[in-house]
Amino acid sequence: xxxxxxxxxxxxxxxxxxxxxxxxxxxxxxxxxxxxxxxxxxxxxxxxxxxxxxxxxxxxxxxxxxxxxxxxxxxxxxxxxxxxxxxxxxxxxxxxxxxxxxxxxxxxxxxxxxxxxxxxxxxxxxxxxxxxxxxxxxxxxxxxxxxxxxxxxxxxxxxxxxxxxxxxxxxxxxxxxxxxxxxxxxxxxxxxxxxxxxxxxxxxxxxxxxxxxxxxxxxxxxxxxxxxxxxxxxxxxxxxxxxxxxxxxxxxxxxxxxxxxxxxxxxxxxxxxx
Length: 274
Known about the structure:
The protein is an alpha/beta fold. It has 8 helices and 10 strands. The chain has a 6-stranded mixed beta sheet, sandwiched between helices. The protein has a 4-stranded mixed beta sheet with strand order 4-10-8-9. Helix 1 links the parallel strand 1 (3-9) and strand 2 (34-39).
């Protein structure tokens, strides 16, 4: 099997991204995979009239150079493998394409609006448009919130890449959702990905264990919990998705966030609220 861990970045690499790249490259070597860091590739961006950079992580379904691999992991540069990780992600049962949910998003979007327009109301409107035009009822969690699948960590098989290539273009999707009056978030990559794997009957999509994309991020509004952080790490955690923006983390702080309990973090909480 020939597998690849793929990371992509637009602009100058941040210090956090350098750490992620370093750790993912080492992890790739450990599990016998190749590693590729794609800086400013401008592949997907050429196919969309605006906001094309959001689609760049989907380059494996565009550029035929990726077809030489049996599986490709496309993973964001704010995701970090835990220390001494032994499990091989490419041995997971992913069907054609696999990804993890964001368990907290349903509750969050029911209580606050994120990024100016991301909320339950718009989620439901988007799902209604999908149902009307593609005849698909999107999956929901136990509280009847729409499941959110995070596009920061997605595994493709070669067959999955072939099937994804047959789906509608980025521009077609973007134009369609813009014409329905949706804000940017609903017109770009992550919702495109949802539609691709659930409305494309040919794709065998598998929901992966959340340990492969354990989120740790700020919480705003009425759901704010201890230290205003939602920490989804647990005994199954393998990759940690550090979405605590607004601070320039150094390698030591990232090590602590990824591998230690909050009580053992040496930096002060006030540092991450700036």
